[in-house]
Design brief:
It is a single chain. This protein is 90% helix and 0% strand. The chain is mostly helical. The protein is rod-shaped. The protein contains two helices and no strands. The protein has one domain. The mean pLDDT is 95.
């Protein structure tokens, strides 16, 4: 779900700056790496703790 904002930013960049082929390759590669990094951070800092909390809560009810 994190990548939707990245797609909007990328589309806006394409509309405004209209980059050429080589610049576009660099933007796509850097953008992809940054989105993967952001997704990993969200997974580690938000998703895993929430999953652990909900698992503990569910196991306590059983």
């Amino acid at each position: 779900m994190i990548h939707y904002e990245g797609m909007w930013i990328f589309a806006n960049y394409l509309t405004i700056y209209k980059p050429g082929g080589q610049e576009l390759k660099i933007v796509i590669i850097v953008g992809t790496v940054l989105l993967i990094g952001l997704a990993y951070l969200v997974f580690k800092l938000y998703d895993l703790p929430v999953r652990k909390y909900l698992t503990r809560k569910r196991l306590a009810q059983e």
